[in-house]
Amino acid sequence: MSQINPDRYTRSDPAPSLWSYRLLRLMLSPYLRRMVFYGIPALFLVGVGVINITNEQRREQVLTTYSEMKTFVTERPEFTVNLMSLKGASDSVMQDIREVVPIDFPISKFDLDLDQMRQIILGLGPVKDVDVRVRSSGVLQVDVVERLPAFLWRRDDGLEVLDATGIYVRTVTSRLQYSNLPLIAGEGADTQVAQAKQIFVAAKPLKERLRGLVFIGERRWDVVLDKGQRLMLPEEDPVLALERVIAMDQAEDLLTRSVKAVDFRLQNRPTLQLRSGAMEAFREIKLMQLGQIK
Description:
By secondary structure, the protein is α/β, with parallel strands linked by helices. Helices cover about 40% and strands about 25% of the residues.
């Protein structure tokens, strides 16, 4: 009868060895795992990069390969810009834009700094806003919103066109270029265009005779009429004072007389400045009237 070997039915111990256990415990550390999975590969790549950089020949090869890859990508037809389209701009503004943003087409879209171009175009006086983008058809699209001329400002060194907020639009050489715009003058008048607009609205009954407004001493306005007449408005409530002058004129034909200026700087004591010789003529009329009475 054969004997049974007891080792044949003995199972192996599933428990890990001491070193396997320690290694498994060590790998549970998050810092070690990061070092193994991220740190060592990163160090390897840095080492390879340092070796290539320190070797002049390898460095030139890397730069050459990078340049060729960049050229291959940037010069593809789908990334080429062939022309520029301007919308919303007048002819003069279009010409100014082409002068300040000279581009030699065709050009790669990667060689265009759209943000810088936008800032340069916004620096032009007539431009209020602009949108610059590259269309899929290879067109550099520039959409311009121009400032609308609202006032003509006469300065010592020339005439400037302002928008409704007093911002500079352009310089002109003649009043006739914008004869439809209201005229203002005086230092600091561009900062008070909102008040000037109110005065122009109130002066509509005098529209046929109105020549413009002059900002005096950077404090108050004079309304200039034809025949050299002036309405000197106060610093406070100039619109109210102008309405009073217009009411007086409509009631008494004040401005059709020999009046040089109506001084309303002191609203409680308005005064009239007569033209030269007007007082003498008035005295003669009075003397003639007195002679007829006698």
